[in-house]
Design brief:
With 119 residues, the chain is of the alpha+beta class. Helices cover 36% and strands 29% of the residues. It starts with a helix and ends with a helix. It comes from Comamonas odontotermitis.
Length: 119
Amino acid sequence: MASVQEALTQLLTVDGAMCAALVDSASGMLLGSAGSGLDLELAAAGNTEVVRAKLKTMKSLGLNDSIDDILITLGTQYHIIRPMAQKEGLFLYLVLDKQRSNLALSRRKCAEVEKLVSI
């Protein structure tokens, strides 16, 4: 098991990684952050709303399923939001430089790190 900071540091080893965070989706608060390039407190609060909206939509549609991850593709960045299956109410957030990253490997790394985090 890895501490929150160790887990986030591991996420930053992915090519093109700019910053990463662990977020409490009940409050929108950061539980840990690493890297630079964004105001992660603001991003945590905003992406909490994204997660809540998707869960609400899934419930309205009667989808009995879970979110593996949510990908937001910008002109120069990828943003990966990965709700933690074993820690309900928490999600990992990873920001990548689109030109320097491999999206598939980054998503895989998020899944690996999710399993290591000890809270």
